[in-house]
What we know:
By secondary structure, this protein is α/β, with parallel strands linked by helices. It has helices at residues 3-19, 36-43, 46-49, 65-71, 81-89, 105-109, 140-151, 169-175, 187-194, 203-207, 220-225, 227-244, 248-259, 263-267, 281-292, 302-305, and strands at residues 23-29, 52-58, 76-77, 94-102, 111-116, 131-134, 160-163, 180-184, 197-201, 212-219, 273-274. It has two domains: 23-104 and 210-305, Periplasmic binding protein-like II (D-Maltodextrin-Binding Protein, domain 2, 3-Layer(aba) Sandwich), CATH 3.40.190.10; 106-207, D-Maltodextrin-Binding Protein, domain 2.
Amino acid sequence: MTKWTVAALLATLAVTGTAHAQTKLQIGCTATTDCASAMVAVDEGIFKKHGLDAEMIPIGINSNIPAAILSGSIQIGGPTSTVFLQAADGGLDLVAVAGATVMSPTSNANITAFVRNGITIKEPKDFIGKKVGAPGLGAFLHVLFVKWLVDKGVDPRKVNFVEVTFPTMPDIIKSGGVDAVLTAEPTVSRMLATGSGSIGARYASELERTEPIIFYAASREWAEKNPDTVRKFRAAIAEGAAIVNSDKDKTSAAIAKFTKQTIELVKASPPNKSEPVLKPEQLAWWIDVMSSQKMLETRLDLNKLILK
């Protein structure tokens, strides 16, 4: 073998190695079904097919995701619409790169105000004076509930809101620590099974909204420096979303693996609808609602919130 043949072979190997190199990507999400499209894309090898060595990183509290993105511990995260908009309003230069989940009749029906035994809720005004636990003040479920109260003519300032995490809801409802909690499946079914209370309102169903619940975001600096990675991520998420919306078995397996829940529990509740395409107008309603609740101090530019 001549030196020219060896050189040519080495050059070919170098090009082949580069072509098959996988770009590392860390995606941070809470233990929720709303990042199912990314979970499926990891589990089914879709990210790898697109040249991405993607890893799902569990984040305990959704409001910690913007900080994790900016610190570089993750490149892409799945904040809720409210967390993302509050972060952007606070001056954090984040940008949405793809859609994750949107509200739908199915997901809205899973959201409830669950009331402990001994408390009677017949209409919205019955929540006045009650102690209501929310999984984060200003979080997705809390903002929706306040919107519902306002639409029903109830002053939300007359409701005593406190923070209660999802894992502690069954115990605090049973002990009478709060009168009601804003929650969703599978927590609702767990509490119904123990006979600790009843459903006081399916407020999300009454609102009938279809806006985003969670979407994938990154720092603007990272996204603009890595357009090829963003393109590959979007393509993989689109494939993952199609599976989430059509194949419950594959989706449940991926969710159970990431959230560390039993497959039986995951299958008991359908995943929220995945919608990989995110449009500026989909955030307009959230901005209006949050502004009316004095949660935003600046006028956010819709066209700058989503990476083109």
